[in-house]
Amino acid sequence: MGIRRVVVALVVLLALPITVAAAPEGTATWASHVSLVPTWLDPGETTTGTQFMVTMALHDAMLKPMPGNPMAPSLAESWTASPDGLTYEFKLRRGVTFHNGDPVTAEDVKFTFERYKGLSAAQLKERVRAVEVLDPERVRFVLKQPWPDFLAFYGTLATGAGWIVPKKYIERVGDAGYRAAPVGAGPYKFVSFTPGVDVTFEAYEKYWRKVPNVKRIVLKMVPEETTRLAMLKRQEADVAFSVTGPLAEEMRNTPGLTLKPTMIPSIFFVVFPDQWDPKSPWADRRVRLAANYAINRQAINQAETLGFSRITTSIVPHRFDFAWPSPLYAHDPARAKQLLAEAGYPNGFDSGDFFTDNVTVSVVEAIANDWRIAGIRAKVRPMERASFFGQFREKKLRGTLLAFIGVHGNAATRLDTFVGGGGVYTQGVYPDIEGLMKEQRSELDRKKREGTLHRIQQLVHEKAMFAPIWELAFMNGHGPRLAESGLGLITDYFYSAPYEDVRLKGK
Fold this sequence. Notes:
The protein is 32% helix and 24% strand. By secondary structure, the chain is of the alpha+beta class. It has 3 domains: 22-44 and 51-58 and 186-257 and 479-507, D-Maltodextrin-Binding Protein, domain 2; 60-175, Dipeptide-binding Protein, Domain 1 (Dipeptide-binding Protein, domain 1, Alpha-Beta Complex); 264-473, Dipeptide-binding Protein, domain 3, CATH 3.10.105. Strands 1, 8, 9, 10, 11, 12, 13, 14, 15, 16 and 17 form an 11-stranded mixed sheet that branches. It is globular, with a radius of gyration of 25 Å. It starts with a helix and ends with a strand. 48% of the residues are buried. The model is unreliable at 1-19 (pLDDT under 50).
């Protein structure tokens, strides 16, 4: 009887359905608002937050933002920090592989960091003394001095330094070969890339977190908003990025289409690179204040993002740690004219070129129109995104420009990027601010550090170093084929993610 019971039990077990992950199916297409460039396939050259639309598919990070967790363990399953703030030790997730089958090891982590030359690379390498491989699954970062922002730079989208690339493969094919045929550890593997046109990825079914739902994803460059919306209507695209103004209203009112405004940590703000040139009108604080009072921020917000963006006068997003609530500027053209007259420009002045990325031309034109009423006359100069940010970093743009960057972090990382000496986009420094920037970098007392960072932001506001416009509500949308677009799943993230969670209806 005992043997019979065992046999019956085995028969019952064999008859039960076996739950397995469904194989990925179908293709989903994104209509992108920007040109896709080869360096975006390599996280070692991360230069803008926009690049993460590619990085999130092809690569994986030690830590990264995920739904419900702004710094989720990914390739690193855990980490510890020493009480003195000088060492951070990471334990890698066991069994994770790159798309070519090579295991992800501590050597890859060390190699990735030493190779990194993207956003804030100088700050990271200046403050990290060594990266030590303890064994294949453990790696230690040793700092030169306590740096409370280490994880803010390494474990968020503030940089691409924690997105791990395969050492052995890159050493074999070289950097150029890697960009031609990149290998990552993310949910999707590389299939093809046509520079400036499109990139195609295919599901990596061995991805550690889950098997992606969609077999193929395609990112297409579609520079015209009208075309992106038309593709969404014709179901030639499933997601359209950056559809603004009346077209966003049309999307909202079109049956089958879904408008998804997403609040992101991207501040739009005017930069005055010439404020350190004593011969420039912009060197006078009153002129920069006039530029701020002249801008009708609410009207631009309503026209461009249907009022969804958040008006601000700070370059630090309000949800960032250590953000200081700066007072708003009123829209006051009369006050702007008065300030210009006090500064010696009763008839206004020609301010030269006003540079902008191609995608933000309408915003810059609106600002320039407001300035013209007050007497500041600017010439709008659109540029392709890669060139714009390249020349911005190299400090080649004079006159004025509209900056925007949506990388994650906190108030200190944002100030380091645009205000601190040596910052990637810093155009000049003020000694009082620079002294405070240096002071807060190694301060471990949270309250003291918060006070210092608040004072820095207050000084930036008082000096009118910039003319902030808004915290952007990114106006994206998706079509009827998608059950899950990935838009808005990760707090403060601009695009669709996690890609492995994107799902077609009926799949």
